[in-house]
Input
Amino acid sequence: MEMSNEWKNHMKPLMALLAIVLVTACAQTRDPQPVGIKQANDDAVSCIDIETEYKTNTEIASYKISKNNSDDGRDVLIGFFIWPGLADFKNADGIEGNALLDRNIFLRQIADQKSCDIRNWPSQPTRYT
Output
């Protein structure tokens, strides 16, 4: 028994939707790549270098944590109502942001040991939880 043309025309969009669902079910979110707390050249850095890295880490951590916090609600909705494979539950940005904050704690310790002036260093954002 052969399908009618009308039936075939209705099946095409359904098959395309099924293909999209199957592909997105296997979608992978990126793994976190946190920065290490200690770096190879930590003993040789100057106070200016420490301050520059600290401020840069603070800006990047703030952005990553804020982005991850705003994405959490979206991920829950997508994962629950649409398709779990599309949601990012690895929280890469939040984990990377927290790693930068941990690095900054270590940078402050180095700055204290070197008697660097840290009075104008920015405060740290709230950690991702």
